[in-house]
């Protein structure tokens, strides 16, 4: 149960963080002033996002007994979230090379955990 809760928290926290940065890259002028004001307005979102990510890593680590597993799982989830944000904000469709690269990373994770 804590693994499901951990992965859910990781996903939600990573979606929040990546959505803020994706929105910024698409809709906010890159000048320092407008970027600074946007980031200042987004600060209230980063506290819950960081809490979700932190507790997500903790619960996944408790479920599997290894911090490495939790952190690599978080990176895989983040890559999937990045694909989602690229599609949502930039209308970028992943190519077959993207999926092959992601499968190689997941395969490496499985190989790492193989006993």
Automatic annotation (TrEMBL):
<keyword id="KW-0812">Transmembrane</keyword>
<keyword id="KW-0472">Membrane</keyword>
<dbReference type="InterPro" id="IPR037185">
    <property type="entry name" value="EmrE-like"/>
</dbReference>
<feature type="transmembrane region" description="Helical">
    <location>
        <begin position="38"/>
        <end position="57"/>
    </location>
</feature>
<keyword id="KW-1133">Transmembrane helix</keyword>
<protein>
    <recommendedName>
        <fullName>EamA domain-containing protein</fullName>
    </recommendedName>
</protein>
<feature type="transmembrane region" description="Helical">
    <location>
        <begin position="96"/>
        <end position="114"/>
    </location>
</feature>
<feature type="transmembrane region" description="Helical">
    <location>
        <begin position="69"/>
        <end position="90"/>
    </location>
</feature>
């Amino acid at each position: 149960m804590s693994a499901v809760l951990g992965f859910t928290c990781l996903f939600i926290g990573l979606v929040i963080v990546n959505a803020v940065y994706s929105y910024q890259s698409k809709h906010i002028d890159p000048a320092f002033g407008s970027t600074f004001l946007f980031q200042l307005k987004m600060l209230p979102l980063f506290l819950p996002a960081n809490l979700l990510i932190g507790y997500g890593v903790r619960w996944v680590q408790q479920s599997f007994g290894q911090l490495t597993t939790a952190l690599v799982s978080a990176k895989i989830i983040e890559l999937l979230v990045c694909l989602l944000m690229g599609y949502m904000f930039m209308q970028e469709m992943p190519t077959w090379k993207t999926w092959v690269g992601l499968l190689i990373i997941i395969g490496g994770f499985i190989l790492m955990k193989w006993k």
